[in-house]
Amino acid sequence: MPRLPQRIVCLTTETVEVLYALGESERIVGISGYTVRPPEARKEKPKVYAFTTGDIEKILAVQPDLVLTFSDLQADIARDLIKAGVAVYAFNTRSLDDILGMVETLGRLVGAAAKADAMVAALEEQIARARAIASARIAQTGHRPRVYFEEWDAPNITAVRWVSELIQIAGGEDIFPERAISPLARDRILADPLEIVRRDPEIIIGSWCGKHFRPEHISARSGWSTVTAVKNGRMHEIKSAIILTPGPVAISAGLPLLLDIFDL
Fold this sequence. Notes:
Layout: E1 8-10, H1 13-21, E2 28-32, H2 39-44, E3 47-49, H3 56-61, E4 66-70, H4 75-83, E5 88-91, H5 96-109, H6 113-141, E6 146-153, E7 156-158, H7 161-169, E8 173-174, H8 177-180, H9 194-199, E9 203-206, H10 215-219, H11 228-231, E10 235-237, H12 240-243, H13 248-262
Parallel strand pairs: 1-2, 1-4, 2-3, 4-5, 6-8, 6-9, 9-10
Antiparallel strand pairs: 6-7
Helix pairs in contact: 5-6, 6-13, 7-13
């Protein structure tokens, strides 16, 4: 199908993950330096950009006929590429439905719709299984644990929408659901850290965007000694490359980790 893109640059890791899973990795001619999935991509594909910074000439040098970007964070490079005459598809993934939709859309862009549909069906089945497990636990205990997910520690930024949805599916209760629906990180900043204390999470999950999560730093925060999660030592890390990636890995690997944490 020569009319479909043959030379694709992926500026975020989730589109690389999907194209490899669909058996279309040969179309990828450039990736972001932050790509982590699958591991072989870092060995096989040239790194042509970081995430929000880099040299557009390195992208143009691999002669892409399509560049895949993510959200407003890459709006500037998307604009510059369009001005340079390159086709750009900007995903704005925020929810689990958006993740599944991204897989379906990418499959159609490369002529692998049937494989993409099968991939989505498998992810939906995993979600359904996790929901059933969580429902059985809640029926047995009559309780959903209150969960605070911290995406960054200074300032305190709470969960993005797909993470909040995964927490709910796994049987937890996100203590800041009203923040999770915001597409912008700045709207998920908690100006008053003591509001977290007042909502008293029973479980704290940290995923500090590539920085190692330090439970002892949580415990040392002023006024946090009364928080149930701190008193009971229920502070856990899920790597950002898993849970904060708006791709299949958030479901395939992140959801089982949440189920395990909530089962402790």
